[in-house]
Specification:
Residues 14-284 form the CHAD domain. This protein has helices at 3-10, 21-41, 46-65, 72-109, 118-138, 141-155, 165-185, 192-216, 219-251, 258-285, 287-293. By secondary structure, it is mainly alpha-helical. The protein has two domains: 17-156; 163-297. Helix 2 runs antiparallel to helix 6, helix 3 (46-65) packs antiparallel against helix 4 and helix 3 crosses helix 8. It is globular.
């Protein structure tokens, strides 16, 4: 930990129960357990999968935000555990997005065969993946991992006292936003991997800003979070074209039915139009404009 951070941590500030390190992390664990319960209640629907993915992503963002206060080995171990659960839902979520977009395309393009064959083909593949994921959840392993993670959080020796947690969060958020602005300033919009990294950073910053604005009653943080939501949506539509088309090509690789292949081509074109529109919207707004809006705390 550098001297600047150490100096910040020495500044004593009164905090309430919502702004302690333990409560910060505990809230994220609780939300993930709640999302898992909702997943079962919704029987693995698109909404249930999406909410669980968001909860896991927020938990990882919270851990990343507080990472400097834990040992490197321990927090890296838990980051990998949580990441492994997110990875298991990635393709399910991609299929949900494709199904939703195919439904929109069918409505606007008057595709008579919307329900057959592509929609059924996507649904069949999704159900196969979902069955495997649901089986892994039903073993209770995610619950066990989250409980073990919470036990570690509450018992791990950290480098912060409760009355210096606010000082740490102020310093850390300012640092994160500064790094985000720099990454945005230097982004090459034609580099898909760079877009993906920036999108991830937008999400992490937004989750923390939403927490910060709620617990500190900070309207400026809330406005920045709204800006980042728009930015991440544009970046998502631009970046996701490549993996979505790859997935469609993989699914249709052994297909012999001409109608299915035609619909895969139509959906690929539809997704390309979404990516183009997002690119145009991002360009019209301008990255310099976003840099100006994403102000340092």
């Amino acid at each position: 930990m550098n001297k600047k951070l150490a100096h910040k941590l020495k500044q004593k500030k009164k905090t309430d129960s919502l702004t302690t390190l333990d409560s910060f992390m505990t809230e994220a664990v609780h939300n993930t357990l709640t999302a898992q319960t909702k997943y079962f209640m919704l029987d693995g629907s698109a909404e249930g999968v999406h909410d669980l993915r968001i909860a896991l992503r927020k938990l990882r963002a919270y851990l990343s935000f507080a990472a400097l206060l834990y040992s490197v080995e321990s927090q890296e171990y838990w980051k990998n555990i949580l990441q492994s659960w997110s990875v298991r839902t990635a393709e399910i979520r991609e299929l949900d997005v494709l199904q939703d977009e195919w439904s929109k395309a069918g409505s606007l393009l008057n595709i008579d065969s919307l329900q057959d064959p592509l929609n059924g083909y996507l649904l069949k593949h999704r159900n196969n993946l979902l069955a495997l994921f649901s089986e892994s959840l039903q073993t209770g392993k995610l619950t066990e991992d989250l409980q073990a993670f919470l036990f570690w959080i509450l018992n791990e020796k950290t480098q912060v006292k409760e009355d210096s947690w606010q000082s740490y969060t102020d310093w850390r958020l300012k640092k994160w936003l500064k790094n985000l602005r720099q990454q945005l300033k230097n982004i090459d919009i034609m580099d898909n991997e760079a877009i993906h990294r920036l999108r991830i950073k937008c999400k992490k910053n937004r989750y923390i800003l939403e927490w910060y604005s709620r617990t500190r009653k900070d309207q400026k943080a809330a406005r920045i979070a709204t800006v980042l939501k728009q930015l991440q949506d544009y970046l998502g539509d631009i970046h996701d074209l490549e993996p979505e088309v790859e997935l469609l090509n993989k699914l249709g690789g052994n297909a012999q039915e001409s109608e299915l292949l035609k619909e895969i081509a139509l959906l690929s074109g539809w997704q390309a139009k979404r990516a183009y529109d997002a690119f145009q919207a991002f360009s019209a707004q301008g990255k310099d404009s976003y840099c100006t809006l994403v102000l340092e705390k």
